[in-house]
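Our collaborator T.R. sent over the components below with a one-line note: 'Predict the complex.' Nothing else. No constraints on interfaces, no templates requested, no preferences about which chain binds where. So this is a plain run: every listed entity goes in together, and whatever single assembly comes back becomes the starting point for the next discussion.
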Amino acid sequence: MVGDSQPARCQGIGRGVTVPPGHYASVACDERFRLLRRRFAHLALWVLCGSLGWYFAYVALSGFARGFMARTVVGDLNVALLLGLLQFVVTFALTGAYVAYARRRLDPLAAELRAGPPGGVRVPRPVAEVRVPRPAGGVVVPEPRGEWNKAVRPDLGEVG
Amino acid sequence: MDERMLTFGLFVGFVLVTLGITVRARAGGKGADDFYAGGRMLSGPRNGVALAGDYMSAASFLGIAGIIALSGYDGLLYSIGFLVAWVVTLPLVELMRNTGRFTMGDVLTRGARGQAGVRAAAVVSTVTVSVFYLLAQMVGAGALVSLLLGIHEGRRFLGMSTGTARTATIVAVGVLMICYVMVGGMKATTWVQIIKSVLLMAGGVVLTALVLGRFGFDVGAMLGSAADASGKGADFLRPGQRYGQDVPGDSYRTIVNKLDFISLALALVLGTAGLPHIVNRFFTVPDSRAARTSVSWAIGLIGAFYLMTLVLGFGAAALVGRQAIVAQDPSGNTAAPQLARAVGEHVAGRAGGQILLAFIGAVAFATILAVVSGLVLASATSLAHDGFGQVLMLGRPRESQEVAVARVASFLVGSVAVVLAVVAQNLNVAFLVALAFAMAASANLPAIVLSLFWRRFNAGGVVAGVYGGLAASLALVLLSPVVSGKVDPVTGRSLSLFPKGVDFHLFPLENPGLVSIPIGFLCAVVGTFAARRETDPAPYDDLAVRALTGAGSH
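Returned assembly:
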């Protein structure tokens, strides 16, 4: 999911290959979905690198740079305690940033995609066997409008 | 009144309230959604409070305060690992919420039915991790009760001797947790967690305020006084008292100690996202946004709580003193209750000390009870949903049947845990929590991460990764100094599970994570390529769309 902006299958659609039988697989070619995926990948990468990088830097300093960590900052407060408290600050800040970004940049896109693709051509079910003709202008994945996301998923039907 | 009776009374009050809620939850709904996931309608903040309750075990509360009180700064290192782990969980939580239904097994099979091998691996790993964690908590409960109720050799409580009281506590905790889970399922367990979280935070805030008050709200003065009282001076506020110790003149030991410390840090930070009782809680909310909110609430609460344990630990070092703490319990688990008595006495005399001690003692029991309930529920859910529903019934169980199996499974898992805990009650099981984290990080995390992010990952990879990671962490612990061959250089007593003289340790580190986590990932990758037939991208694209948009999630 991370890092590949163009799923291999989407390149093939224009050449008239079979749309595979994943119920939502075809959405993976939607431009907006690829944008959502890129944004999520960047967000996750930044947050993970930030928190884990900073944490392991701190662990390494605690293990191997004891002289540096023992330096006094103010009174009884030393570098080790200060960096430890900064871990809390960084954790809270990264969490806040993650939540804010996700709310602003991910949720609206996801909601739009959940609501169904715009201007899709109605295709008779089952999708699995449909041969997609080469569209005139770029890659358009035909999908019925409206409740496509609740469409036939036999494995979900009984309890949920 | 005797403070032991007060503790007992407060705890009985907690039990009665939570049992009442359990019975009400039973009346609410009887479907699989209700039993496994509390009806999936918990709000984000509420689930966040429950997550914090699930996470802050007695090890966090009593353990970290104790480590800080005895080893100073290094206790802080431990709690920071527990906290930073949640940032790793943050990007995973929405994806897991959207792709799974009740268990980790749902995520690993990419939402598809069947895949018996994957489901079986999920069951094995969930139950193993849960039982180890469960055992640690229950043995801890037994040890705690004799300390908190002040039952020493020769003293009796309600007519019971020490040994009987311990066994009775373990059995009572076991019976209660089975009751909550069997009768009330996820809803009841959630309420137990929420009430416990609120009690724990309240207890923490009161104690922290009283401790800081003793020092005129001057944190510097508290730190200075703790360093003086510890007898180690400024070293008490620096890393190296406990983890990654330098051994002068022995560079091999020094390196081993440092690697051990890094290994622990790795397991702590990567284990959380694979703990079954935490993962199952991601499925109780209506959508991914609520799941995200609940994790951010949990981070806020857990962070605030660990900041308070910092004050409690250093406060205990300053106000109770090392000698008094070690006299009660050599590993320092009673530092927080002892501190409660000390500051209570200072504020309101003997009665004040007794009341505060009783309150903190009751909170500690509630903590243990809540965490073990969450663990039993996680195991039962996996056994019934993955094991019975998907493997035995080939993915077509009747819903009522599956829930009935879940209730029976919770009884069985709970009973096994009680028996094991009674048998193991005299062993030193403190390492079991770290082991549970290492197993979760080595077996579950690779499978979860690769399922969500690697297109080519397949069932062969899941099975190889889960069993490989699990086996590696178990084998490395068996061959480590935790189990055999570690001897206290001063007293000459064995510090391992086996008595002195038995020594079959081959692996030098006490924490397996540094080696077993890479093994877990490696097995998953190798298994994927070994089992690879034709690559069909559709199931992965399907999963990716569902994970990121929440389309078609339950």
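Summary for T.R.: The two ends of chain B are 53 Å apart (CA to CA).
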